[in-house]
Amino acid sequence: MTDLSFIIHEPATEYHARSRNGEFMSSHLLADFRESPALYRRKVSGEITESESSAFVMGRAAHCLILEGRNAFDREYVVTDGPINPRTGESYGRNTKAFAEWAATQEREIISGKDFSFLLKLQRGVWLHPLASELLADGIAEGVVRAEYCSVPCQIRMDWFSMKSGLVDLKTCDTLRWFESDCHRYGYIQQLAFYRAILRIVTGKNFPVHIIAVEKNEPFSAGVWKLTDELLDLAELSNKSALERFRACCISGVWPTGYEDLRIIDTL
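Above: the chain's sequence. Below: its structure in token form.
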């Protein structure tokens, strides 16, 4: 298959809005549901609203710069420290009223010079890694795919996809030493099993799955991991089970916390 018409290109804001309103299940919402059906329900009903953290903004900017390049980055972001205070000759602090008023007039998201230097270090770390640069040599960034999975409308937004390399996900971490533990702790394996399953529905095949991780600290080293089919198959069983429970909650209208039953602590 060489036809990539199954991939949709749309702004991230539109994609996320269609998850937040419950129209499509995403991997992140499914993770919320696995944690607590009540949490999922409160998010899609609007009872819980999440503001963008500075870490989330930086992560999105890093993905744009690393995966889409400087031209795409400059369309979305402006690198500046903001207006200058005439009394001091230095820029106003980000927490000042003057900075907030100035920022409100900007069409692009603001990245400070210091933060941009940090992003460049992440970019350099990824592109200097021979396997990472090979995986990212040809493909599509931020492609969206939608399909019905386990009778549930679902959507994915892939960091990177190519017919040759398959799925490539970009993560940042504190240290590569513990990244494999991060994969389990943060549900990366279930996330990518979900992506692989949606892709299989629309293409009829399983694609390889890789994760590129880059450290957020010196020396900003990068590493590449391939997830085995056996591991992804196990994670897919977990996802299918969660989607079955999700459909049951939709029918019953009951969204438990997941902690209603008595639990026992019997180990040190």
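The chain has a mean pLDDT of 93.
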